[in-house]
Design a protein that fits this description.
GO molecular function: uracil phosphoribosyltransferase activity
Distance between the termini: 44 Å
Radius of gyration: 18 Å
Helix content: 25-40%
Keywords: Allosteric enzyme, Glycosyltransferase, GTP-binding, Magnesium, Nucleotide-binding, Transferase
Number of helices: 6
Strand order of the largest sheet: 1-11-9-7-4-5-6
Structural class: alpha/beta
Protein name: Uracil phosphoribosyltransferase
CATH class: Alpha Beta
Strand content: 25-35%
Bound molecules: uracil
Family: Belongs to the UPRTase family.
Organism: Paracoccus onchidii
């Protein structure tokens, strides 16, 4: 079966938690708690295609061939800083994953993303690599982060966000058609400042209590 480029995770718990997170008056603590909870559910969906193999184990009753994940540990890559909010919950679900960070800022002249930090696990070419950033807005930083990861060998990539704009999804589809995008919602679009509408505001500010 071919993988769709965009998967909207419509699980009722995801949708319910997301609605609460969108509300303008949710506290920082509440937002963070919901983000952690929702990321556990998103992790479940984004890892559906992981390959299994079998291993021989001994139960208290008998020996059996039991399923176990095949291959190298996953790589989780957080796009700083808001990606860290999604990362924490996913790591709870996949504690043995290897973790990397990508930092980008927007050049005020060219408006293009510029790398200021990149530290990623080794052997990316042999790992499923899940890139996390809560907001897929213009898609500029996501595309740049995936460019950087491909340059470092990543081949089997997924992109996971909480909200996506149609513009961001299209930009990703054009630049990286081989990277499936998972989101809890495809929102209406972007405002003049590149914010997702209806969205939830600035995800980093909301999870870290900054302004
Ligand atoms: N980044 C955010 O935090 N929110 C948006 O709506 C867009 C980008």
């Amino acid at each position: 079966m071919t993988q769709p480029h965009l998967t909207v995770i419509t699980h009722p718990l995801v949708q319910h938690k997301l609605t609460i997170m969108r509300k303008h008056d949710v506290s920082t603590a509440g937002f963070r708690r919901l983000l952690r909870e929702i990321s556990l559910l998103l992790a479940y969906e984004v890892t559906r295609e992981l390959e299994l193999t079998t291993t021989t184990i001994q139960t208290p009753m008998c020996e059996m061939q039991a399923p176990t994940l095949e291959g190298k540990k996953l790589a989780l890559i957080s796009i700083l800083r808001a990606g860290n909010g999604l990362l924490d919950g996913i790591l709870e679900m996949i504690p043995s994953a290897r973790v990397g960070f990508v930092g980008l800022y927007r050049d005020p002249e060219t408006l293009k993303p510029v790398e200021y930090y990149c530290k990623v696990p080794n052997l990316l070419d042999q790992r499923m690599t899940i890139v996390v950033d809560p907001m897929l807005a213009t898609g500029n930083s996501s595309v740049a982060a995936i460019d950087m990861l491909k340059e470092r060998g990543a081949k089997n990539l997924r992109f996971l966000c909480l909200l996506a704009s149609p513009e961001g999804v299209e930009r990703m589809r054009q630049a990286h058609p081989d990277v499936p995008v998972y989101t809890a919602s495809l929102d209406e679009g972007l405002d003049d400042h590149g914010y997702i509408v209806p969205g939830l505001g600035d995800a980093g500010d909301r999870m870290f209590g900054t302004k």
